[in-house]
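S.,

Sequence below, as promised.
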Amino acid sequence: MKPRMGHYNSETSAVVDRVPAKHAATDALIDCSIIAAVNSPSTFEQALHSPTRAVYLLTGNPLTLPGLLARARDYGKLCLVNIDFLDGLARDRFAVEFLASYGVAGIVSTRFEVLKAAHACDLITVQRTFGIDSAAVLAAKKTLSQFLPDLMEVLPAMAAPKIAKRLFAEYPELRIMGGGLIESVKEIEELFAAGIHSVSVSDPRLWLI
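The prediction came back faster than expected:
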């Protein structure tokens, strides 16, 4: 039974129908070349009606998220949530369990402790990192030595191929997603040609597949 608003209990709340289960969901996400990054209610509606099979929420709060996640599920979309961008939720395991109870498919965060909690809830884990300099690469490697996520999102997307080369040398099984500042189909194609597995894109005009 779907948990009632205001009556969430992290110890007793049952996880609603997460479709599909984690391993199948991870495989499905990896097969999604373009992921619709959503930062407003209007673009969320566009994402639901787009060809993309995965939606990446960068907005929401405890009042709106249950409805958003239910609508994504009704449309057969995998829904990832960037927990670092949400309002009204701490960045801890209780927030992760709250989102899991409403059917989120995966958690995106810069914090590996949060991702460990997501892994414990059998959710897809996406580590977010910023490819700004060599120090950022070293920080990413340190994080990966403590926790290996299902995917790593590198921002900006155009830096992802360089970061990926350095990370693949030590973590060849790692999947890389590029995000941020993508402006054209040509740029997306170049990222795929460079070995990037998927991209998160906020421009609805690029939600093509």
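The chain has one domain: 22-204.

Coffee later?
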